[in-house]
Amino acid sequence: MKKFLKNREINSFLFLTVLIFLVGLINQSFWKPETIINCFNDSVVFTFLSAGIAFVILTGEIDVSIGAVLGLSSAVGATLLRDGYGIGAAVSAAILVGALVGLVNGIGVAVLNIPSLIFTLGVNGVVRGIIYVYTKGAWVENLPADFTIFSNRFLAGNVTYFYGAALVIIVIGHLILTKTRKGKYFVAVGDNAAGATLVGIPADKTRIMAYVLCGVFASMAGIIYASRIGFITPTAGSGYEMKAIAACVLGGLSLTGGIGSLAGAAIGAVIMSSISRILVFLGFSSDYDNTITGFLLLTIVVINTTVQNRGALKNRHEILAAKTAGKGGQKA
Amino acid sequence: MKTSFFLKMKQILKKWEFVLFLVIVLEIVIFAGKNSKFLMPRVLFGSMNDIISICIISLFVTFVMITGGIDIQAGSIVGLSSIILGVAWQDGGVNIWAASLLAMAAAGVCGGVSGFFIAYCNVQPMVVTLGGSFLYTGIALLVSKLSATESYKGINGFPESFLKLSKFRLFGVIPSQVIIFLFLAVLAYFILHKTRYGRQVFLVGVNQNAAEYSGIHTKLIIMSTYVLSAVSASVAGIILTSYLGTAKSDIGATLTLPIITAVVLGGTLSTGGKGSVLGTALAAIAIGTLRFGLPLCFKVSQQYLDIPVGILLLVIIIGRALFGRPQFKTYLMKMKRIGRGN
Amino acid sequence: MIKHSEAVDQKLFTASGIIKTFGINSVLKGIDLSLGEGEVLALIGGNGAGKSTLMKIIMGIYQPDQGSVSIAGEKMTVFKPSSSLARGIYMVPQEPLLFPNMTVEENVLIGLGEKPGILKKRLKETMAEINWKLDLGRKAMSLSIAEQQLVELLRGLMRQARVLILDEPTSALTFDEVESLFKIVEDLKKKGIGIIYITHRLTEVFQIATHVAIMRDGVITLNGKISEFTREMLVKGLLPDDCKEAERQEAEELDYTGLMPVFELKNFSGYGFWDISLKIYPGEVLGVAGVVGAGRTELAVTVFGKDKVLSGTAVLDGKDVTGLSTREILKVGINYVPEDRRLNGLFAISDVAANMTSALITGKSMGKLFVNRKAEYEITSRYVNDFRIKITGLDQSAGSLSGGNQQKIVIGRSLATGPRLVILDEPTRGIDAAARKDVYGIIHKLKKLGVAVMLISSDMEEIVELSDRAVVVYQGRIRGELKKQEITQSGLMAASFGVGEGKQVEG
Questions:
Q1: Per the CB < 8 Å rule, is C394 touching B212?
Q2: For B251-281, what is each residue's pLDDT tens digit?
Q3: C154 vs A84, C90, C131, C318, CA distance in Å?
């Protein structure tokens, strides 16, 4: 149990491995490398979304506006592409949108001290509305073919360029969070905000940074979404925020902050988006998808929280027992 | 304990509910001035169907948020109730009203399960109800598979008596949805503000520790609020099914955010301890009026309506955050003292 | 790394004429204090003496109204935690503020800018210097409280602290852990680091301190080299100047003949206290003295059903009430007025009436289904009048009242349930003199009604004034029971601080 708590992303990875192994036992065709790699390829949008929101969740906050940010940035990027702008311009514009919304969220939460769920909920409504204004309620279609086809370009084997990029970014982000001085601030703020301030960590700045990064990641997810789907509806990405949060929990992040990693979030995204594919290979209907996601989510958080609470109580009792002189006649 | 008319007026003017009331009046004046059709009862009441679910559920999600929790699974329970009702009636051969009760009972169990994890296992309400929203959406889909009817079509052909539930018009104008909403609002008002149970809901939200030291069964109270909000969601699901004439598993999918918006706009503190049924009801009506009036009078497309609602929410929470700051509070206190002359 | 060559009179730290006022409360009334290299200054004082305010000023969290703080001869101009940290001051708080999910190494090194390799080397060296071994890869949440404190110490040392503030470092340590902590303190002393050592335990003062200062009501009452003082002198310094033992109210002594105890604990043990036996009679006030953290609150909340009973029994009116839940305990007739009013007592944003009746709201006396407004009004106004609670109306929010009035409300609530035994935990902490007098009046009334009162207080004067009998709790155990005539402030104080005849001092 202790190990379980110690390295949650490794556990999520083991869970995924065992899952793949077991499914393969039942249906041999699942074991083909292409099938397994496709599980990863198909998770790429959620990988970006989950990794982005992981920054926010690690600091102990939440962001429910990322679905809308995905929608807006993909609409902005796709419109520019459709109108003949270069890929560089489109991507920069999309990322700028994400960063801006993230900054607004960060200021609302860190500076104005508004509960993050409530604030990002309001931002979600506004951003979703801006999508309609921007697109005039119409679909963004007729994207250049070389852009949409890019999602099927393979970097090596059948790993797409997009997933390759995701891998590189996740690895870099993971290393920054775990190895660099400032990167560790994110986890520190979520772990013990009071303690962080005491050792001189700028908690508010860290939170704002987390939201900006979250927005940027969501907009990258938006670009990939545009390329994969090929058209953007005004409701693109709605409900994705909940799935991204769920993926983070599956990947071992704690919504109370301070526990988890980017790698965990990425693995969680793969688990979550593979469930329906796995169901098909098992001969079930993919209708079980949500049921299983919900069941897994609840099981994981209930077990984690119970273990944590037990630990905290035990700790408190140990401290109290230590304060008691000559307890139980052990000492004179 | 002076209760002079003036003092009372002053208290009312200070209240948040009064601000919301003004917002509604303002909306009506503007909309009616722009397009007189807005005031036609048939048109006005006809708009009720679109927001009835939000209105009903937000009344009881208020309870949850007063205890300091949050409920983002209510939308999924709307769909679950609808499909249970439909399948039990069509494929189970159960009487339609018994099927409605069954749907409400099932919703109560769902709320109870989530509430149990939140209250007794101390898991964050946000995560549990997130998991719950997936689980109950999923179960709703599975229930729909039990039916002989294809799930995307929905279950139709309900008896006339059931459809009447939403077609009835009092005095030929006031739709039954309005009556049901008013009834539930009054019911919620009495439960929350007048009963011993409601008092305990508040006390738990203000200070859970102190409530425990007072001997209040805090965990049970917390769990019960989730049962209440789930049952209210099923009521909304039943009414919606009657109105649409179709039972579907996904009819509540987009309700979550508007519900929370209504509750927060209604003055409920997201940290718990403060809130009112009247505030939530007024906020829901204000949002509803906005969503109805803008397209009718200003030709704003339906889909843009998230913007004004979102802006309304943001302006209000930012305003409250700024006014609630300690610096600002001490400043206000000082001004008051100077005003009193000591 | 610290050279002793320069002038010895160069003080590491000097505070002079520090005055700090919060609103109308003057907390520090001109503090002069200094610390030299290699000195261990023991700072002793009761609750509310102003120790923590002084430390917060030194840490740069508060700014003094008047006076100055100099570090190594240099005057502090800005008061910010980061500038205090940069000047080499580090405080190890009583409850360590570590990052529970980070490793020991991450906890110590976080925020330090040097290269990881160099940092790690320096950490190893520092650990070797103080001769301390711990797996650097362990998560902070798996550490014992002693280990957590050592991690905090390491944090301070890695930040090249010249002045370390240790806030009651031994309060949660076992005997062996205290020994090893003392060894480390000795090492630090030799390295020329100055230490301010805040403690409640006088024995420790003589073990490790080179200097001692006693604070009381915002002033230093006694200050000097440890060799100039005896324990008795320190105890005396802790007592107020106007403490005249003779002036104690020699009011009617309780006649115990034929009385059966209302409440009895037999070898009662739980987390934070051990083997407690006591009796409380009707109309009697049993004083429970001791310092904060001695285990008295833990005893009270365990009786009240908030924590597990490990062994022993609690008996109320001959009925076994061991291990009942809080709801059941309230029903059988025990009520508890909590120590931390804000955290466990008050419904700050609720109105006075809701606060007063919160313990009755679960029962039928407040109405069957609906809240009986008449009953609520009657009960509330009765206590408001009886206790002279100053409010503008029953609908005023409790949080906007003064501390004294808040406390009266919480006491009123507990009495409204008609208890046989009331446990008052620090009932007059942080309230003004007038309200204190009123609370004492309430306690006298309770006595007349035959209610048994357990009075937990760190204010010895209060125990002397009100108690019919008193026990002293020291490190979770009862250290002597005193009859009314035997209760003196100095006796209580000595026992509370672990000084006493007969029994050997532990830990």
A1: no
A2: 877 788 788 889 988 888 878 888 999 999 9
A3: 60, 10, 12, 54
Write the DSSP assignment of C191-221 as a string of letters: TT-EEEEEES-HHHHHHH-SEEEEEETTEEE
Q: What is the pLDDT of residue C302?
A: 94
Given a cut of 50, is residue A5 above it in pLDDT? no
Please give the Cα distance from A282 to A286 (Å, whole number).
Answer: 10
Residues of chain B with pLDDT under 50: 1-2, 341-342
Model confidence at C503: pLDDT above 60: no
Q: Which helix (H) or strand (E) holds C42?
A: strand C40-44
Nearest to C283, CA basis, from C420, C470, C414: C420
pLDDT digits (tens, 9 = 90+) for C344-367: 999 988 899 999 999 888 888 888
Which strands sit side by side in the sheet containing C319-320, from one edge to the other? C273-280, C263-270, C309-316, C319-320
Q: Which helix (H) or strand (E) holds C366?
A: none
Chains that touch A (3 or more CB pairs under 8 A): B, C
Select from B190, B289, B175 the least CA-distant residue to B243.
B175
* C46 neighbors C233 (Cβ within 8 angstroms): no
Query: With contact defined as beta carbons under 8 Å apart, do A9 and A251 qualify?
Result: yes
For residue A26, give both structure tokens: 């039942």
Residues 209-238 of A with CB under 8 A from B: 234, 238
Question: For B87-102, what is each residue's pLDDT tens digit?
Answer: 998 888 888 899 999 9
Exposed / middle / buried, residue B336 (Cβ in 10 Å: 0-12, 13-18, 19+) = exposed
Global pTM? Answer: 0.83
Check if the beta carbon of residue B131 is closer than 8 Å to that of residue B220: no
DSSP alpha helix (H) spans, C80-144? 81-86, 104-109, 116-129
Judged by a CB distance cut-off of 8 A, whether residue B16 touches chain C is no
Highest mean pLDDT among A194-203, C366-375, C404-413: C404-413
- Cα A30 to Cα A37: distance, rounded to the nearest angstrom: 10
CA distance A100 to chain B (A): 16
Specify the residue for token string 């690895």: A171
Quote the CA–CA distance of B185 and A309 in Å, as a whole number. Answer: 38
> What span, in angstroms and rounded, lies between the C-alpha atoms of A193 and B287?
37
